[in-house]
Amino acid sequence: MSSVRIKVLGSGREVGRAAIGIERKGRILLLDYGVNFDEEDHPIFPGHVRPRDLDGVILTHSHLDHIGAAPYLFVSMIPNLYATPVTLDVSRLLLLDMIKLNGPYLPYDDVTVEDMLKNAKTVTYGETVEAGEFEFELVYNGHIPGSASVLVSVDGHRILYTSDMNTVETKLMEPARIEGVKADTVIVESTYGASNHPPRREAEEEFYQAVEEVVRKGGTVLVPAFSVSRGQEMACILAERDFEYPVWIDGMIRQIFEIYLEHGEYLRDPILLDKAKKMFRMVKSWQDRRRAFKKPGVIIASAGMLKGGPSLFYLKKMHQNPANAIFMVSYQAPGTPGRRILEEGVFGEESVPVKARVQWFDFSSHTDQRGILRTLKGVRGLERVVLVHGDPQVQEKLRDKIIEEIGVEVLIPDNGDVIELD
Ligand SMILES: [Zn+2]
Ligand SMILES: [Zn+2]
Question: Which one of the ligands is nearest to 228 CA?
Fold first, then answer.
């Protein structure tokens, strides 16, 4: 009898906080160890795992919901850590930033983060890696630069963990290359498992036309964007079309621009990103920041949900001018200022009506129902599907669809659940 088990430590019936343990004979290969944030913006950790039981930790990409808890495993010892070079570099930036904002609520500090990263082993796509009881390889998954799915081989089982993936081409990434992989079990993200995104090209064109319209009439467009990937992608959309007006880039988006350019081989089109960097202006001082919103142009700034950072500064300066626009290109979580502006048209404690034009554009870096089904159909030898990283209502709809179209077993585990593979 096989003794392989999947332990869902996080991302069970929830979006984010990814943490999946694959266990054999008491040894564990840990896939991601991320956090979510509560209403006060304090981190919530996944289920516990003893560092001494680990044969390895793999970080699939640099989003905090996949890496935020990882340094905790390195407080008392140094397990083997595996990730692509881009993931490691961007993770450093994000983890150190999280310590700045949330230090008192974290069971580790910047020294732990450096210890973790210093000893990490860099891995790239297609390389076979042995980690104790396990063997694994990273598979290109189209989510953000450096991101990967993980194919784990252990005791005759082949388990594919997609992590966050995208199946369409974006300005930064090629579509996922999962089709053709052989796996009996697929642990798949289900963030948008019940709906479909419009074609990417349409979203890009719609965004560009809207930006041009506002700027041509003398307005300034604020694009609050996630620092990791989305900010750079928006810059590429403007650069590709030789946008003629000034574009300012502010916040952590700038540093990640540099990291991505250092690892051009992880980009679909490094020349385009380089062009964007040369065409547009990086905000380097308060003087720049005050200049940026005074003339027609575009400002791409962190943070994506307007919870803080330079995007919040610009919003306060810009939202009372009807010539301006706030174009949201990132997911807006419930309770964030971004979501409130979109849904209620108001900002701040006084609920001041926003006079600038407000619009949302669908630029997800997660695949949709169509993409998930196509991916699963492309896996050879598939026997069971485990849905993670999704809301339960979405997961139930997706499960029905998978059973109907593919006819394999579908599980929707909760956090703390253990799945025995037979
Ligand atoms: Zn995620
Ligand atoms: Zn992600």
Answer: 2
Instruction: Give the model's pLDDT for residue 422.
Output: 79
Residue 343 neighbours by CB under 8 Å, 6+ apart = none
Domains 4-195+365-420 and 200-360 in one fold: no
Looking up tokens 């979006």 gives: 15
CATH for 4-195+365-420? 3.60.15.10
- What is the DSSP pairing of strand 134-140 with strand 185-189? unpaired
pLDDT at residue 41 in the model: 86
Which sequence spans correspond to the domains of the chain?
4-195+365-420, 200-360
Q: What is the per-residue pLDDT across 337-348, written as a single tens digit (0 to 9) for each?
A: 999 999 999 999
Task: Give me ligand 1 centre to Cα 389, in Å.
Answer: 7
User: Check: CATH 3.40.50.10890 for 200-360?
Assistant: yes
Ligand 2 centroid distance, CA of 322 (Å): 34
| Segments in the chain below pLDDT 50 | 1
Q: How many angstroms is it from 147 CA to the middle of ligand 2? A: 8
For residue 80, report the distance from its CA to the centre of ligand 2, in Å: 22
What local confidence, expressed as pLDDT, does residue 218 receive?
97
